[in-house]
């Protein structure tokens, strides 16, 4: 791990659920560690306390400490860039998806090669979510399909095609038989994994929704968007506690110079990781209170 550097430009604006704009925080230096990957980071996921797993255009999957930025283990096997990574709580298994149209399963403390391979999509695999007990895997693709898998056998249990649903990300809701999915059609969907069908669609946003993640207690969901010319590139916090038929936006954070926000991971009740195209992985913190807010605390 190299010396800490400073990142000087940060622009944090909070948008309340009623559409009003909150205060713009002052610029401040953010700790920045040596990069984990040699190319753009495409995905990041929480693994265990203080640890995360990430994937990148360098075709590798890395396990590292999000506090220090130190790389602890690296997996290789995909033939093209890694698009998504995920893991199940209290599991020694890590999962990844790639532009090579496959998903793979890796064993922590095992070899650098995959222990299972999942292939059923016609295009790049862009969504990946694993059940809490790691027995089932959900994948999505640019081919408009979502698949349900048995992780032990590698068998595809069900495959659903949804018109114009170009999947960008999937995440499993803790303690629930639901998977949240973002799409290029600017919507966020809630899938019931028991029948693999859409149970609810969130209010549409103005930009393509690139990623989503849910807090460990299943109460809050965070989604990110693409954007250009100073618009978009936002993180939106959704409240899942009310009902499955009504979801509200709590806060939004903009990261200047980060480029498209490609992935999110909830590490604990207040810490989030956000992978970006231009500036590595950002550590975000949720400040709770009468009006919840997001703030940036580190970059690696």
Written account of the structure:
- The protein is mainly β and 300 residues long.
- Helix content is 0%, strand content 55%.
- The chain has strands at residues 5-7, 13-15, 21-24, 30-32, 41-48, 51-56, 60-65, 71-76, 82-87, 93-98, 102-107, 116-119, 125-130, 136-141, 145-150, 156-161, 167-172, 178-183, 188-192, 197-201, 209-214, 220-225, 234-243, 246-254, 261-266, 271-276, 281-287, 293-299.
- The strands form 8 sheets. It has a 4-stranded antiparallel sheet with strand order 5-6-7-8, with no helix packed on it. The protein has a 4-stranded antiparallel sheet with strand order 9-10-11-12, with no helix packed on it. A 4-stranded antiparallel sheet has the order 13-14-15-16, with no helix packed on it.
- Strand 7 and strand 8 (71-76) form a beta hairpin.
- It is globular, with a radius of gyration of 18 Å.
- The relative contact order is 0.14.
Compose a concise summary of this entry.
By secondary structure, the protein is mainly beta. Helices cover 0% and strands 55% of the residues.
């Amino acid at each position: 791990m190299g010396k800490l550097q400073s990142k000087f430009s940060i622009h944090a604006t909070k948008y309340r659920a009623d559409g009003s704009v909150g205060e713009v925080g002052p610029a401040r230096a953010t700790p920045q560690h040596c990069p984990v990957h040699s190319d753009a980071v495409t995905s990041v996921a929480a693994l265990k306390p203080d640890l995360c797993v990430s994937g990148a255009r360098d075709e590798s999957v890395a396990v590292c400490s999000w506090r220090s930025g130190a790389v602890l283990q690296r997996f290789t096997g995909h033939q093209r860039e890694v698009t998504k990574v995920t893991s199940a709580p209290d599991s020694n298994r890590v999962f990844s998806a790639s532009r090579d149209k496959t998903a793979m399963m890796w064993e922590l403390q095992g070899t650098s090669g995959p222990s299972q391979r999942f292939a059923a999509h016609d295009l790049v695999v862009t969504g990946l979510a694993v059940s809490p007990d790691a027995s089932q895997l959900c994948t999505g693709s640019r081919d408009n399909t979502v698949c349900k898998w048995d992780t032990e056998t590698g068998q595809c249990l069900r495959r659903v095609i949804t018109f114009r649903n170009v999947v960008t990300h999937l995440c499993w809701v803790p303690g629930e038989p639901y998977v949240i999915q973002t799409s290029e059609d600017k919507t966020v969907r809630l899938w019931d994994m028991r029948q693999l069908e859409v149970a609810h669609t969130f209010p549409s946003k103005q930009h393509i929704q690139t990623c989503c993640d849910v807090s460990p207690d299943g109460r809050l969901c965070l989604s990110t968007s693409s954007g250009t010319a100073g618009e978009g590139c936002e993180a939106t916090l959704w409240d899942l506690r009310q009902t499955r038929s009504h979801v509200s936006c709590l806060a939004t954070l903009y990261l200047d110079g980060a480029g498209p926000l490609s992935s999110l991971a909830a590490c604990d009740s207040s810490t989030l990781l956000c992978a970006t195209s231009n500036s590595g992985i950002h550590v975000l913190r949720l400040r709770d209170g009468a009006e919840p807010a997001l703030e940036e605390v580190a970059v690696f």
